[in-house]
């Protein structure tokens, strides 16, 4: 039987990166390396290969199946708190407008507007759809009579991982399923 990995372009063969304890280095974003970085790490003896694609890369002197799952040889201590990014903010707020509950046209909104001294922090920024953001304008939720569904907090990585169970990545290779917590059926 012909395996689809054999015709896959190497650029379509990212490696899932696990920490030395065999947990993903990160979930958001999912810790994946391009095949070139993974192969380099193999040759530098910085990782162990856990699983492979069927796809091989060749040189004049060797052939190597591209790694699909690798584990670092040295443990990297994860930070407790995620970076403040647009994606992490949307994930904290479950990709939902915190004013009306819509799931479309998402932007972010300063609860206390910058014009009123508000800062760009976890505790002052929420996900908002474009119409709600425009309606609220430079006012606070109270001034605009637009109550928030949830008060914004600084999430931990655990919070984002818990929310992320509902939002698996678009691509999950079959060899990754043992290392991730998304249901296999979500990939189809």
From TrEMBL:
Please tell me whether the keyword Lipid biosynthesis is annotated for this protein. no
Classification via Gene3D superfamilies: 1.10.30.50
User: Which Pfam families does the entry mention?
Assistant: HNH_5
List each copy of the HNH nuclease domain by range: 84-134
Q: Name one GO molecular function term.
A: endonuclease activity
Cite the entry's keywords alphabetically: Endonuclease, Hydrolase, Nuclease
Say yes or no: keyword Mitochondrion present.
no
Which InterPro entries does the UniProt entry name for this protein? HNH_5 (IPR029471), HNH_nuc (IPR003615), NA-targeting_endonuclease (IPR052892)
Coiled-coil stretches: none
Protein name, UniProt field: 5-methylcytosine-specific restriction endonuclease McrA
Q: What's the source species' lineage? A: Bacteria, Pseudomonadati, Pseudomonadota, Alphaproteobacteria, Sphingomonadales
